[in-house]
Give the backbone structure.
Amino acid sequence: MKTIKISLYIFLLSIISNNATATSYTWNGSTNSFWNVSSNWTPNGIPGSSDNVTIVTATYSVDLDTVRSITAFTMTSGTLSLSRYNLTINGNATFNGGTISGSDGKLLPRGSVTNFHGTTFNCKVDAISGQIKMNGGTFNDSLIVDQSGTSSTTGDGGGTFNKPVIIKKTGSSYLKLGNLYPDIFNANVIVYNTGNNQIQFSYGAAGTKFRGNIVLNNTGIADGVTFGSNEGTTTLDSGKTLTIGSNDFTDATLLLKNFHQQ
């Protein structure tokens, strides 16, 4: 019994210690552009894997100096350069504004919620999160998203996608896009639904545009893909195609409502 009590005490102490060391840092960029200079952050220090980071406009923009992992991340304004390094976000990620660039580096959200809402992405983005909220943003490099959880999302829309996009839903949830504002897809889009419930494009907004080809895949228990299910409208450019991939819709819904080609 004494051994159990001691082990439990050590376990609880480790949890308290880990929580106590988590810090929320805001970029102040007062010294230079280097992530690993403590005076560039408020409070003074260098964010680590257990910490939360907020990027705002400062005298100097921030440059990632190596592969890094953090907990929560908020991009409010300013510029973050990934250069050739990957940034993994293991907690909630919120992209409200600013610009993230990177020649070879990738942005890797891996937390419970990823909210795209206004940031310009000049880097590759690969997001796997319980909830993916598509509320805007400009994507000038490839985008992969996978909603893996059981909580549904309804994205406002308003996104501009200038490079190929892969949209996945492996969780048992609805993934709705384009509820209030049209999304503009200027390159090819590939869709994979492998979980219960549907992926729903052009949900409520008029004017969603697809200027590249669309490939739809639906497997197993997945319930299909819809366009315009809540009266939204969709246009596919002349000469472009919508095709069913190797995974078919035998027992699922494919709805093309208010869907036009011109």
The longest strand covers residues 99-109.
